[in-house]
Design the sequence.
């Protein structure tokens, strides 16, 4: 288990990824899989993110090393709607458009988030869930516009699409680190960006970026593409299947009776 | 066994979907209804997005109606001429319904439209059926038996544009069947139902058609209207999920055969009162959701 991981690390190190900043400590990381296929029986998956800190000199003294890892799904604009009572029934009244919200977002840290990351760094790199959502603001005349963004986070957290996993990154000997992130079954297709931040005293010392490609394959891919690119053919095919199934059922039942 | 639905983009238990199809098939076999009015709300409850639920159940109804209509054609209980007039109205209605559906989807009110339509129509039909089966049971208990009133002359017979419907033995204006067809088409598009539960009473009480041709003729119309609706939803919204439809169809086919046998064990009045209770139950659940403060006031939708 350890050996292949070390080999993978060696490979990554050999590629000598140009990491941001010219720090004394550089982070390199790898993923257990960088391609996720959504098949018909896809039921969510778990990815292992692991890596190491590369340094030429001994580890500096001072605040301890912390690691913050984010996994971010494709951004999309969403409309958040709020129900209100109108003539005895509850219906959608106010609506706020959020310009860009990740379809999936997970933050994993090695310790308490507040200690691992300063507010300034969070603002600059948009690391926490709240910062990853961009909204230009609600239209005038809507009371409590902040609650719409909060609702978006709350609803997505409840289904595992947004996660804050504090203290789940395990650091060994101030050098090796690893964590697991659960991806739920209702994943959206696209490129998932993985960012690894190395921090000391809340300040980012170094960072690393890679991506996971999530894609429907096989039957799922075929049906989805057909439905969107050849909608007429897809519709006719759906009807043909229904007619065939109905006819077959009727014929089978008659055989059965006689 | 979880299965990922390519269009709904959710992962659902395949056996749950087969079971849903089976239950609805069982009921349709027992009561002779399409079951669309049950399958759409049930799909909402398991977490299928409403737009996908409506479009896909229209597709499923094509399958269940085909197997029903073949039996009726063999027994010569389909009035094709009346069916075509109803169909003409149905296609128009379906076109209007899909427009309305898409317009409200943009406004974020499509769930409300679907739920309100369900509450109103299920409430009316359920109450009428319930009352009727109660009187039928009371009548059956009285000596002398039933004396059905039929073929009354009403406003339907005063309209122009009369046409002869030989199989039904009718000579009436085409306007009422066209209107009934249109209403059913609209309902098919926004509720994902065949509309038999509206059309059958309308054919009997409004048009005065003989009961034996009513089911076959309505099934004939339903096949084409739901197929057309499926096509419209598939080409404008991309919301027909073939995999979901297939699971529901397979479950439904098996359920329907079991249901037909079960139905033979019960008396007609008992069946009808059971169906009425079921309709009212679904209606009550949906009304409850509209009237009671929801636990989560906010919902996430697409901006398109």
Sequence:
């Amino acid at each position: 288990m350890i050996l292949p991981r070390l080999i993978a690390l060696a490979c990554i190190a050999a590629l000598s990824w140009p990491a941001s900043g010219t720090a004394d400590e550089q982070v390199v990381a790898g993923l257990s899989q960088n391609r996720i296929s959504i098949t018909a029986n896809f039921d969510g998956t778990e990815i292992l993110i692991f890596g190491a800190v590369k340094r030429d000199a001994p580890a500096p003294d001072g605040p301890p090393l912390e690691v913050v890892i984010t996994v971010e799904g494709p951004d999309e604009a969403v409309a958040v709607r709020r129900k209100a009572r109108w003539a005895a029934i509850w219906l959608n009244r106010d609506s706020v458009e959020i310009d860009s919200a990740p379809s999936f977002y997970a933050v994993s840290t090695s310790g308490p988030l507040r200690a691992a990351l300063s507010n300034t760094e969070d603002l600059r790199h948009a690391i926490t869930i709240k910062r990853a959502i961009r909204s230009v603001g609600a239209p005038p005349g809507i009371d409590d516009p902040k609650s719409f963004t909060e609702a978006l986070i709350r609803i997505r957290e409840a289904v595992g699409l947004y996660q804050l996993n504090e203290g789940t990154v395990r650091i060994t000997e101030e050098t090796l680190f690893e964590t697991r992130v659960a991806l739920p079954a209702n994943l959206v297709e696209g490129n998932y960006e993985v960012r690894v931040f190395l921090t000391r005293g809340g300040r980012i010392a170094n960072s690393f970026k890679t991506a996971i490609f999530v894609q429907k394959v096989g039957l799922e891919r075929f049906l989805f593409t057909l439905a969107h690119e050849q909608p007429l053919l897809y519709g006719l095919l759906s009807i043909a299947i229904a007619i065939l199934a109905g006819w077959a059922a009727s014929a089978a039942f008659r055989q059965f009776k006689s | 066994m979880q299965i990922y639905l390519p269009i709904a983009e959710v992962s659902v238990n395949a056996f749950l979907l087969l079971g849903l199809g089976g239950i609805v098939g069982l009921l349709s076999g027992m009561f002779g209804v399409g079951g669309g009015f049950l399958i759409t709300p049930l799909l909402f409850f398991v977490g299928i997005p409403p737009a996908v639920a409506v479009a896909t159940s229209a597709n499923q109804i094509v399958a269940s109606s085909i197997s029903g209509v073949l039996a009726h054609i063999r027994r010569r209980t389909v009035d094709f001429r009346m069916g075509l007039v109803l169909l003409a109205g149905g296609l128009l209605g379906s076109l209007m319904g899909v427009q309305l559906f898409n317009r409200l989807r943009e406004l974020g009110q499509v769930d409300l439209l679907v739920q309100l339509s369900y509450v109103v129509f299920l409430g009316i039909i359920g109450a009428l059926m319930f009352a009727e089966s109660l009187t039928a049971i009371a009548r059956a208990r009285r000596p002398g038996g039933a004396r059905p009133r039929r073929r009354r002359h009403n406003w339907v017979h005063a309209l122009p544009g009369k046409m002869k419907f030989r199989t039904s033995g009718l000579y009436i204006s085409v306007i009422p069947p066209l209107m009934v067809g249109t209403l059913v088409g609209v309902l098919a598009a926004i509720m994902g139902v065949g509309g038999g539960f509206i059309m059958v009473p309308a054919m009997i009480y409004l048009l005065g058609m003989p009961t034996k041709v009513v089911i076959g003729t309505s099934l004939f119309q339903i096949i084409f209207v739901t197929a057309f609706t499926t096509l419209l939803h598939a080409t404008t919204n991309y919301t027909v999920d073939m995999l979901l439809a297939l699971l529901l169809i397979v479950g439904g086919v098996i359920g329907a055969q079991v249901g037909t046998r079960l139905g033979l064990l019960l008396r007609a009045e008992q069946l009808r009162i059971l169906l009425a209770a079921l309709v009212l139950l679904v209606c009550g659940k949906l009304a409850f959701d509209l009237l009671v403060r929801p636990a989560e006031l906010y919902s996430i939708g697409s901006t398109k």
